[in-house]
Design a protein that fits this description.
The chain is 10% helix and 63% strand. By secondary structure, it is mainly beta.
């Protein structure tokens, strides 16, 4: 018992000393946590019109490993970015392709443990209409506003993507962990694949919409897609006022609320699995069909016109 009391006393003493040292240190820094970041950031600007290239830029290839990226519509390609003492950055135009590459150097003992500057020193890119866009990112914090891109392809380990007021010819996302937010946008063929996937869609349209993953959480409000497909081991879906010709849902464990913007009588319903399923029926329109497949299903299927 005495040894236990001594151990607790030593632990408490160490904790108090650590708290005092932390408080004293942060007081010296005026409680500005960004000052813990010892990396040096230098602001730079790149203008494609000043790059010396006379070839029209039709494609942008971007690879960022540690900085967040914001993209907005602009008359020309312009990049406001930061050179960091723990990164190597190259920017240029080659054969009609804008290329950005940022490679983060590892080593917390050399470059410090606190990289908080990345939270506020984001790259900002303006992009004219019609450019094909390819983004490769280790940890992608990506935001696109008012962008009209021919195609958008994103490959990322951890992807946090926001599209707002955008028009995209096609959208493809391949990630391990992904959080996708699409609002007031129009996309062509859309395919999103991720092991762990959260998707939020509001007032947006798609030529086709396909999402797949192991763990899938989807919320869609006022979306339009000729074909909408959802596949996962564990799927939690809330699809409100979905206007679609064909909807296909496949989940081992499926919890779904689906409100179709349309007449119930027009749709064929084909549901198979165990649990709470909607009744199967044959619709009056051969092109409209709802398919549900799963092992354990709790599905509430409704229509705006009964």
């Amino acid at each position: 018992m005495n040894k236990m009391k001594k151990g607790l006393l030593v632990g408490l003493t160490v904790f108090i000393i650590g708290a005092v040292m932390f408080t004293a240190g942060m007081s010296v820094l005026d409680w500005d946590f960004y000052k813990l970041d010892t990396v040096k950031y230098t602001e730079r600007t790149f203008l494609a019109s000043e790059s010396g290239s006379e070839t029209e830029i039709t494609r942008a290839e971007i690879s960022v490993s540690s900085f967040g990226l914001e993209i907005a519509r602009g008359d020309e390609i312009k990049l406001d970015y930061y050179e960091a003492s723990d990164s190597v950055v190259s920017v240029g135009v080659e054969n009609g392709v804008f290329k950005l590459n940022e490679r983060h150097k590892s080593g917390c003992f050399v470059y410090g443990m606190f990289k908080l500057g990345r939270l506020k020193y984001k790259y900002k890119l303006t992009l004219p209409d019609g450019v094909e866009l390819s983004i490769n990112s280790a940890n992608g914090d990506l935001s696109l506003y008012g962008v009209n891109a021919a195609n958008l392809k994103i490959t990322s380990a951890n992807c946090d993507l926001s599209l707002s007021d955008c028009g995209v010819g096609s959208l493809f996302v391949d990630a391990t962990n992904a959080d996708i937010n699409v609002t007031n946008s129009a996309c062509g063929r859309t395919e999103i694949n991720s092991t762990n996937l959260d998707v939020f869609v509001k007032n947006s349209s798609f030529e086709s919409f396909t999402v797949s993953g192991t763990n899938l959480d989807v919320e869609m409000y006022g979306a339009t897609a000729a074909d909408a497909s959802f596949a996962a081991t564990n799927a939690d879906l809330r699809l409100e006022n979905l206007k679609a010709e064909r909807v296909n849902v496949d989940g081992t464990n499926l919890d779904a609320y689906i409100l179709i913007d349309g007449a119930k009588s027009e749709y064929t319903v084909d549901a198979h699995g165990w649990g709470d399923l909607p009744a199967n029926q044959s619709g009056t329109d051969a092109g409209k069909k709802i398919t549900l497949r799963g092992t354990n299903i709790d599905a509430d299927l409704r229509f705006t016109v009964s």
